[in-house]
UniProtKB/TrEMBL annotation:
Residues that, per the record, bind substrate: 83, 181
SUPFAM superfamilies, per the entry: Creatinase/aminopeptidase
Protein name: Methionine aminopeptidase
Subunit structure, interactors included: Monomer.
NCBIfam families for this protein: met_pdase_I (TIGR00500)
Amino acids binding a divalent metal cation 2: 111, 174, 207, 239
GO molecular function, one term: initiator methionyl aminopeptidase activity
Highest taxon listed in the record's lineage: Bacteria
Function statement: Removes the N-terminal methionine from nascent proteins. The N-terminal methionine is often cleaved when the second residue in the primary sequence is small and uncharged (Met-Ala-, Cys, Gly, Pro, Ser, Thr, or Val). Requires deformylation of the N(alpha)-formylated initiator methionine before it can be hydrolyzed.
Family membership noted in the UniProt record: Belongs to the peptidase M24A family. Methionine aminopeptidase type 1 subfamily.
Length: 255
């Protein structure tokens, strides 16, 4: 079931979205060569405490997971695409880092992700990250009343494929509201004009996940959470929580 939000509810979701944006900003600020992903998680926990918010990630256990997620953010490094558990291994010069964060505030969820390089960036990584961000913006641009879910999917997929990148098979965006994951699913590739019509009050987490080697396949780490490219290529992830409104798409996970 798709839950349509009132304008008042969207304003409340803006508050939780702002906390998510603060977490991602803090993670980028703290991340440096020698810093561990676990330290990024500690910094995210501090942001949540300061805001009086909680994490929808911590102890989350979907059907595929062998154990509850043990952190408040996902930190996926290099060939890890998504769902990376923050580790104690220090970040190295040139690492490509994706941070996915969520927040619950006032009973409403926010969800967003960003990718960046620690230290000196490889040109190929810079292009990959820029394409992920461009694909996200293309998806947001298609998130207008009168369009359909397929229009968002097509916009994202077109940007990814035109650049020669793979798209994480079977994963995409989702509705969001009282829960982090709600209907509808928002694929990262699809046909325009297909799928559910977009209405004022729908709120979606739009999140392209790009695989640098051009393949769509992935493998699971032994932890049961982390998804990695099968060819060892690097990956990038970009995400925002977006409200569909009569005035156009409204990004809720910004400062």
């Amino acid at each position: 079931m798709v839950h349509i939000k009132t304008d008042t509810s969207i304003e409340a979701m803006r508050d939780s979205g702002r906390v998510v944006a603060q977490i991602l900003a803090r993670a980028r600020e703290v991340a440096a060569v020698g810093v561990t992903p676990r330290e990024l998680d500690e910094a995210a926990r501090e942001v949540l405490r300061e805001a009086g918010a909680s994490s929808p990630f911590l102890d989350y256990k979907p059907h595929f997971a062998p154990t509850p997620f043990p952190a408040v953010i996902c930190v996926s490094v290099n060939d890890a695409v998504v769902h990376g558990i923050p580790s104690a291994e220090p970040l190295r010069d040139g690492d490509l880092v994706s941070v996915d964060a969520g927040a619950l505030l006032g009973g409403w969820a926010g969800d967003a992700a960003v990718s960046f390089t620690v230290g000196a960036a490889r040109p190929a990584d810079t292009r990959l990250i820029a394409t992920a961000e461009a694909a996200l913006q293309a998806g947001i641009g298609a998130a207008v009343v009168g369009n359909r879910i397929g229009d968002i999917a097509h916009a994202i997929g077109t940007a990814c494929r035109a650049a020669g990148y793979g798209i994480l098979d079977g994963y995409g965006g989702h509705g969001i509201g009282r829960s982090m994951h709600e209907d509808p699913s928002v694929p990262n590739e699809g046909r325009p004009g297909r799928g559910m019509p977009l209405r004022h009050g729908m709120v979606l987490a739009i999140e392209p996940m790009l695989l640098g080697g051009g393949l769509d396949e992935f493998r699971h780490d032994p932890d049961g959470w982390t998804l990695r490219t099968t060819d060892g290529s690097r990956a990038a992830h970009a995400e925002h929580t977006v409200a569909i409104t009569d005035d156009g798409p409204r990004v809720l996970t910004v400062l």
